[in-house]
Design a protein that fits this description.
- The protein is α+β, with helices and mostly antiparallel strands and about 200 residues long.
- The protein has one domain.
- The protein contains five helices and three strands, in the order H-H-H-H-E-E-H-E.
- It has helices at about 5, 10-60, 75-85, 105-120, 170-175; strands spanning about 125-130, 140-150, 190-200.
- The chain has a three-stranded antiparallel sheet, with helices on both faces.
- Helix 2 (about 10-60) runs antiparallel to helix 4 (about 105-120).
Length: about 200
């Protein structure tokens, strides 16, 4: 075979090598993106665990407060609108770190500080607490944390509504659905929820 017939073979080999390298780089980029996504999910779950422990410690240390004093509920949209309305939203009426507070005032302060921490740590974060049972007997708190998850999208990239808790929702689904009290599905587009039960 003459040299003339072999001209361009090196160029083809170089192009194939570039193609193989490009595929490898795209695969590495995909792995990096997935790793970042799972890292963010892990960080959020860790933050949820820390915040729940913080609330539990606050409730346990305030023996004089009635269980209903640690109740906070409204829709997610109402809470986020109130948070966005002014910088003073998380400023307590009475700072129990520097002043003497009654058990009820301390409960109000604890809830405000706990919700402030959630807002600071999670994008669009809001915390809700619903007590059930009787203090000293079977008192429990259903704690719901809701936040905006930019990855909560469908195949077309549109944000999707989370599943709403039903009476027959159990198991893992019950931990990750949003209570109906947080609002209609359309108002919760892009939101994720975590439900945890706390026994003080």
């Amino acid at each position: 075979m003459s040299m003339k017939n072999q001209s361009g073979a090196g160029l083809i080999e170089a192009l194939i090598a570039i193609l193989v390298l490009s595929i490898g780089l795209l695969g590495m980029l995909g792995m990096q993106t997935a790793a970042l996504k799972y890292e963010q999910t892990g960080w959020i779950r860790s933050s949820l665990s820390t915040n729940l422990a913080s609330l539990a410690d606050r409730v346990r240390s305030n023996n004089g407060a009635d269980g209903a004093a640690y109740s906070y509920s409204q829709t997610y949209s109402q809470d986020r609108s109130a948070i966005g309305a002014g910088a003073g939203y998380f400023t307590p009426a009475k700072n129990c770190d520097t002043a003497t507070c009654s058990a009820a005032e301390l409960a109000t302060y604890d809830l405000l500080m706990w919700r402030r921490d959630i807002n600071n740590q999670l994008p669009g974060g809001s915390g809700f607490v619903v007590p059930t049972g009787t203090k000293g007997q079977d008192l429990r708190f259903l704690v719901t944390v809701a936040w905006f998850d930019k990855d909560n999208v469908d195949a077309l990239g549109n944000t999707v509504s989370p599943p709403i808790c039903q009476a027959n929702t159990v198991g893992i689904a019950a931990r990750n659905c949003c209570p109906a009290a947080l609002g209609l599905p359309a108002a919760l587009s892009g939101v994720r929820c975590a439900n945890l039960e706390m026994v003080p």
